[in-house]
Design a protein that fits this description.
- The chain is of the alpha+beta class.
- The protein has two domains: 262 residues, no CATH class; 143 residues, Jelly Rolls, CATH 2.60.120.
- Helix content is 65%, strand content 9%.
- It contains 17 helices and eight strands.
- The strands form two sheets. It has a four-stranded antiparallel sheet. It has a four-stranded antiparallel sheet with strand order 2-7-4-5, with no helix packed on it.
- Helix 2 packs across helix 11, helix 3 packs across helix 7 and helix 7 runs antiparallel to helix 8.
- The longest helix has 34 residues.
């Protein structure tokens, strides 16, 4: 056996195109835009009580600021940097909030926290399909506490950034020192967001991906969210939504921002899942194309290059080589990429040649599917190039592709029929699975 001599390939570009195609296809198939919209709605439910609590906290801070210089500086920083006067005038922050309202808001926050986390969990179950069940503590207790803690940590980071910006603007601690502290605070905020996404991508799937893969895709998602935030600040103004939608402007603004943010989060999660399925999709397209199943022009272009599959799974054997020996316990399946092979079986009268395998045929899968030893030998009649598929890959292929599963079942039926016609069916009383 030797490795195939590979033609020039597009290398990384071909792989990236296939990854992007698989991601987009799965995103549309799983309707992630609907999941993002539902999650944005629960995010709005969580943001509303936070604004009521913020209004109450501002009133409390105002009372403290009457006798405290640091509280006065913090109060001035919040109003200056966050434009709280403008937000209050627009109706985004209520002018009055009583203690009772703050208590109701806290309760609403806890309940909406569960809804938001469950919405995210539902999207992840679609992106990373699995039938395992989670522990009841994780399912019921964690959603009630994770969002308040998350908002508290993010709020403290935003509060530190706001205060530092105010101090730098009025030269309380020096511009250089303030900028250094702002930079460190921004890096800590970025690291916090990355750590949050990394934890979600790594631990939320019920079959966790490798940590290094989750870390890379979490980094991409964090950078994308940062870019989204910059674009929103540059092109989307709350005042414009208020003038267009009136009192509902803040609601619309929050929904739109939340929708795009969660859509990015889900698309990167889908890309992480597609990262482990790109080979499976490429193999599926190759097998179906060889059987005459039509493909769109885009699919034909994206999956035209098979060299990467040959490099990973390809084997070349000379004429006369026995690829599969009757009676062996091996479970590897093969796809005949180039050349011709013959099927041989031992009979009472000696070896018998049953059929010929041509290019584009999948064979050797019965040993795995039926859990039996090899029932025939496969001998190369010419030099052959095959793709060797371990049982795990074959299982993923059948789970991933209904058309391919139907093709494999059809092939098994044809072989059973051919063996019966050829007089090689098992004797009466024996199972007909041995073909």
């Amino acid at each position: 056996m030797r490795a195939p001599d590979l033609p020039p390939t597009r290398g990384t570009l071909a792989w990236l195109l296939q990854l992007a195609y698989t991601t987009v296809h799965l995103t549309r198939q799983n309707s992630l835009q609907n999941h993002a919209a539902a999650t944005a709605f629960y995010f709005l439910l969580s943001a509303t009580p936070l604004l009521l609590l913020l209004s109450y906290a501002l009133r409390l801070l105002g009372h403290i600021a009457e006798n405290s210089v640091p509280a006065s500086i913090l109060m001035a920083a919040l109003y200056s940097q966050l434009h709280l006067d403008t937000l209050t005038e627009l109706g985004f922050i209520p002018r009055q909030a009583q203690l009772a309202a703050g208590g109701v808001s806290l309760l609403t926050l806890l309940l909406s926290s569960r809804g938001l986390v469950n919405a995210v969990g539902g999207a992840f179950r679609v992106i990373f399909p699995d039938q395992q069940k989670r522990n009841i503590v994780i399912s019921w207790v964690l959603p009630l506490i994770i969002l308040p803690i998350l908002f508290l940590v993010m709020g403290l980071a935003a509060l530190a950034q706001t205060t530092l910006s105010f101090l730098a603007q009025y030269d309380f601690i020096g511009i250089g020192s303030a900028r250094l502290l702002q930079g460190l605070n921004s890096l800590s905020g970025f690291a916090m967001m990355w750590a949050l996404l990394f934890t979600a991508y790594w631990r939320m799937p019920r079959r966790p991906p490798r940590a290094r893969h989750a870390a890379r895709f979490a980094l991409g998602a964090t950078l994308s969210l940062g870019l989204l935030f910059i674009l929103f600040r540059a092109f989307f103004k709350l005042e414009n939504y208020h003038s267009l939608y009136g009192a509902l402007g803040g609601v619309v603004f929050t929904l739109i921002g939340g929708f795009f943010a969660f859509l990015l989060l889900y698309v990167w999660a889908q890309a992480l899942y597609a990262y482990g399925k790109t080979d499976i999709t490429a193999l599926e397209k190759l097998f179906l194309r060889s059987s005459g199943v039509g493909a769109s022009k885009l699919e034909s272009y994206v999956f035209a290059d098979s060299a990467r599959l040959l490099e990973k799974y390809g084997e070349i054997h000379p004429a006369g080589h026995t690829l599969i020996k009757e009676g062996d316990d091996s479970k590897t399946a093969y796809f005949l990429y180039a050349g011709h092979a013959a099927v041989h079986k031992q009979t009472a009268s000696g070896p018998r040649r049953l059929s010929v395998l041509d290019e584009g045929q999948l064979f050797g899968e019965m040993a795995y599917l039926l859990g039996e030893k090899r029932t025939a030998s496969i001998v190369a009649e010419t030099e052959i190039t095959v793709l060797a598929l371990p049982p795990a890959i074959l299982e993923e292929l059948m789970r991933h592709s209904a058309p391919l599963s139907r093709r494999i079942i059809g092939t098994l039926c044809q072989r059973l029929e051919h063996m019966n016609v050829a007089g090689q069916a098992p004797a009466t009383g024996e199972t007909t699975r041995k073909t």
